[in-house]
């Protein structure tokens, strides 16, 4: 026999069914939110463990490298050479060529002049210190530097190899030698002619 139910309070029953569905939906949503939060928590824990592992690995690597460096002899010298090598390119690009200068000096210098030192600064100012047998030879060298590179032909636009030539510091020692100092400005052609 079949049971037939007569719904005497249809609205109450519909409200109950609706409340049951809402309860079921709320429970489902709660389980979903808990599952998502649990997943986020698990992922967070895994990330934290991975970071701790990575930190331990890096600390071990640092310790190993420190040990290796502390066992390296002449570490300071190695680092100095390394920094010098790093600056070598810059220094190489700033080098100065003096080959043309020496060929000019050979042409204008009297035979009894001896050059003791030569200095050049960044403004192409040259200082030559030397000795010779007489005041006249030192004066000849200074005068030869002044006229070096000057062409007699007025149609040729050529600059002197040296300008502002100044002879100074002439002293005569007890050995019969005269020491001198010549300061001059060298043209770019003298300094960098062999690039």
Question: Which blocks of ≥5 consecutive residues have pLDDT under 50?
Answer: none
Please indicate the percent range of residues in DSSP E strands (runs of 2 or more).
15-25%
Compute the separation of the termini in Å: 118 Å
Question: Helix proportion of residues, in percent?
Answer: 40-55%
Question: What number is the mean pLDDT?
Answer: 82
Q: Number of helical segments?
A: 5
| Side-by-side strand order of the widest sheet | 1-2-4-3
Task: Name the features.
alpha+beta; 195 residues; 4-stranded antiparallel β-sheet; 5 helices
Would you give an account of this structure?
- The chain has a four-stranded antiparallel sheet.
- The mean pLDDT is 82.
- The protein is of the alpha+beta class.
- The chain has five helices and four strands.
- It has helices at residues 10-70, 75-93, 99-108, 135-147, 188-191, and strands at residues 114-120, 125-132, 162-172, 178-186.
